[in-house]
Amino acid sequence: MNQGNNTFTQPSEFVIVGFPGIQPEYYNLTAWLFLFLYVITVGGNSLLVVLFAVEHSLQKPMYIIMVSLALSDIGFDTAALPKIIARYWSNDGSISFYTCIIQTHIIHYFGTLNSLIMMTMALDRSLAICFPLRYPVLMTNRIMTGISILSWLAANITPGIAASDYSRLLSYCKPNKILHIYCDTVSLNLVACGDISPIVLKTVSIAMLVLLGPLSLIILSYACVIVTVMKMATLQGRLKTLSTCATQGLIIFIYYIPRFVVYSALLLPSLVMTSDLRIGTTLFYSLFPPLINPFIYCLRTKEIKQLLRRWVQRWKSIDLLKSNTVSSITK
After folding, report:
1. 8 Å CB contact between 173 and 193
2. Which of 93, 191, 207, 329 is the most buried (most CB within 10 A)?
3. How far, rounded to the nearest angstrom, does the alpha carbon of residue 172 sit from its chain's CA centroid?
């Protein structure tokens, strides 16, 4: 591909660098840290999926959303972390060009999907709180399943456009090092050549649309919740209702605000972020919510807590029965 007097060729592979500031003596520790995050995230979210599958009492609209979010979190971490673990564990950071493009698509796909899921969760809570008598009619298992399937399908659109542009329309002539723990549009911008401003503007505009659209509906939903809560007669009722939304509101804050900072840095020359700061900020909003989501929903959801308590008691009873049986045989 020619641009001006220079000839640019498509690289056969990229190299995932990770954190540029980490010294080699800390590579193993970093690999273990990412492995720990991956195992805890996948294990915790898998527990939610298993609970939903085996317990019919949890097969309700709210838990359908939670399972959708759990599966999305598992997918994101599985796409993002194995390569960076290999990079720090065995110094294997190479990734082919098209694998990098595919990873870019998957990373942004699950990011878009999470945004749609959190919007659905906010709408579900607002319906449950603002219209409690009509909620069973407005939100059935079939309707929530349909919304979830539509979200999983629709989330492919904008990441697909970006991945297509970055594979066909951009040239890469700079050192083929990805200053990130995975391939994404921001890291690919740093190794692209020529005038990439039209692509960057298009990508950031799409990203902002994906973020601002759901966020607007989320804010509207919580505004309706607050108005409804303020009309409640008792203070205890207000606090109980608000507490159920407070944690989700915190996760939404963590998810959206740092993202705005990272994407705004692409358009605002005055907003300068070092590579380590950009990567750290991205990891905070990408890996922290999937890590704590299952713990939040397990610890704050009454039905799941009761279910886990019954399971623990059942296991204790089985262990006690085995111990008594062994004692009887020994005697």
Report:
1. yes
2. 207
3. 28
* One-letter-per-residue 3-state SS of the chain: CEECCEECCCCCEEEECCCCCCCHHHHHHHHHHHHHHHHHHHHHHHHHHHHHHHCHHHCCHHHHHHHHHHHHHHHHHHHHHHHHHHHHHHCCCEEEHHHHHHHHHHHHHHHHHHHHHHHHHHHHHHHHHHCCCCHHHHCCHHHHHHHHHHHHHHCCHHHHHHHHHHHHCCCCCCCCEECCCCCCHHHHHCCCCCCCHHHHHHHHHHHHHHHHHHHHHHHHHHHHHHHHHHCCCCHHHHHHHHHHHHHHHHHHHHHHHHHHHHHHHHHCCCCCCCHHHHHHHHHHHHHHHHHHHHHHHHHHCHHHHHHHHHHHHHHHHHHHHHHHHHHHHHC
Cα 171 to Cα 281: distance, rounded to the nearest angstrom: 27
8 Å CB contact between 106 and 77: no
Q: Which residue has the tokens 């970093």?
A: 30
Q: Are 127 and 135 in contact (CB under 8 A)?
A: yes
For every one of its 331 residues, what pLDDT tens digit does the chain have, with 9 covering 90 and above? 444 434 445 778 899 988 888 888 889 999 999 999 999 999 989 988 888 888 777 788 888 998 999 999 999 999 999 999 999 998 888 999 999 999 999 999 999 999 999 999 889 988 988 888 888 888 999 999 999 999 999 999 989 988 888 888 778 877 788 888 899 888 888 888 877 888 888 888 888 888 888 888 988 988 888 888 777 656 666 676 666 667 777 778 888 888 888 877 777 767 777 778 888 888 888 888 888 888 877 666 777 767 777 777 777 666 666 666 655 555 5
Phi-psi category of residue 168: left, alpha or beta, with phi > 0 → left and psi -120 to 50 → alpha: alpha
CA distances from 196 to 173, 189, 191 (A): 12, 8, 10
